[in-house]
Design brief:
Blueprint: H1 7-19, E1 25-27, E2 34-38, H2 45-52, H3 55-60, E3 65-69, H4 73-81, E4 87-90, H5 92-100, E5 106-114, E6 116-120, E7 136-138, H6 145-156, E8 169-171, H7 176-185, E9 190-194, H8 197-205, E10 208-211, E11 223-229, H9 231-236, H10 238-257, H11 259-274, H12 280-287, E12 290-292, H13 298-310, H14 327-333
Parallel strand pairs: 2-3, 2-4, 7-8, 7-9
Antiparallel strand pairs: 1-3, 4-11, 5-11, 5-12, 6-9, 6-10
Helix pairs in contact: 1-7, 2-10, 2-11, 7-8, 8-12, 10-14
GO molecular function, one term: ATPase-coupled transmembrane transporter activity
InterPro entries: ABC_SsuA_sub-bd (IPR010067), NrtA/CpmA_ABC-bd_dom (IPR044527)
Keywords: Cell inner membrane, Cell membrane, Membrane, Signal, Transport
Length: about 325
């Protein structure tokens, strides 16, 4: 097993990220600051680069920015709902679920596509999706982006989770730190994991790749990260939203043109938060399992929502009319 540090080290690292999630901010505390949220994950590269390279601060000028990192989408949405966050980066699943319950949220554009890897423990007996019957898997959340992607593929081959009476045991709300520990201790058979944690399980714990990121349900088209705000904040602060989107464009462009420095910057950012670094080989390989992009693919978001309804994560047929409005970002991209 290749090691830069033991799996328990990465578990401590990820645990630290969770512990210092919502409410951990940097920047000025003045009331006029634009509060930007993100996750300390690889597919949030645009957010991290935008922060670390100063793109957001430069575009916002005197108004300034305040940054908060979150351990999961539920905490992000709660901050947005309670007025403690203005704009930021989150997975499409929590954003869609919030919108469908009447939440004030709008998608302004995408930040990354892909980044879901289906992996199994080395001695789990799972090599393909057909092997999941009678086995267990975990996901970061119940009905989260990755959960729906895996369960939809299982449903297509006649398998269902125990949530709906099937034979596949699902354990939800398992943080990446706990995924690592559970794989190491043989407590779970498989995972639908976000990057870079899926690749970490493969490279450091010899996990099997069951389904590559581009072969999962909606793999190459579904945004793994979207930029969102509330319609209220957008209506009251259009110039600030445009400033953040200009910074977002610069950050995406930078990541696409400067892979080596992007990965170094992200690892340095994680080190600042946790005093640990991810193995370079993990970051490099995980980077090939996602795409930092502004291409949103609204039809993929609707297809994901339809799948979530089909899997009975939702009670009503989802209508995402008004959920996506990329007009402001499109105007910036076309300048």
């Amino acid at each position: 097993m290749k090691k830069w540090f033991k799996a328990t080290g990465i578990a401590l690292m990820l645990g630290a990220l969770t512990a210092c999630g919502a409410g951990n901010t940097s920047g000025s505390d003045t009331e006029s600051d634009v509060r930007i949220g993100y996750f300390p994950n690889l597919d949030h590269a645009a957010a991290i680069i935008g922060k670390e390279k100063g793109y957001f601060d430069d575009e916002l000028g005197e108004r300034g920015a305040e940054y908060t990192h979150f351990p999961n989408g539920n905490d992000f949405i709660e901050a947005l709902e309670t007025g403690n966050l203005d704009i930021g980066y989150v997975g499409p699943g929590p954003a869609i679920n919030y919108f469908l319950t009447g939440g004030d949220i709008v998608v302004l554009g995408a930040a990354a596509n892909g980044a879901t890897l289906i992996v199994s423990r080395e001695d789990s007996g799972i090599e393909t999706l057909e092997d999941f019957g009678g086995k267990s898997f975990c996901t970061p959340g119940n009905g989260c982006t990755h959960n729906v992607q895996l369960e939809m593929m299982l449903k297509d081959i006649g398998l269902e989770s125990n949530r709906v009476g099937g034979t596949v045991e699902h354990q939800s709300r398992i943080a990446p730190a706990n995924m690592v520990a559970m794989f190491e201790q043989g407590q779970i058979d498989a995972a639908a994991a976000p990057e870079p944690w899926g690749t970490y399980l493969v490279e450091e714990l010899n996990a099997n790749v069951v389904t590559e990121w581009n072969n999962v349900f909606l793999g190459e088209e579904l945004a793994s990260v979207v930029v969102v705000t509330s319609k209220k904040f957008l209506e009251e602060n259009p110039e600030a939203v445009d400033a953040v989107l200009r910074g977002h464009k610069q950050a995406v462009d930078y990541t696409q043109e400067n892979t080596e420095d992007t990965l170094t910057t992200i690892n340095d950012h994680l080190f600042d938060l946790t005093q640990n670094r991810l193995p370079e080989t993990v970051l490099e390989k995980a980077w090939t399992r996602m795409a930092v992009t502004t291409e949103t693919h609204p039809e993929a978001l609707q297809a994901w929502a339809d799948a979530s309804y089909e899997l009975k994560f939702m009670d009503k047929d989802p209508d995402l009319t008004g959920f996506v409005d990329t007009s402001r970002l499109d105007a910036i991209l076309n300048q």
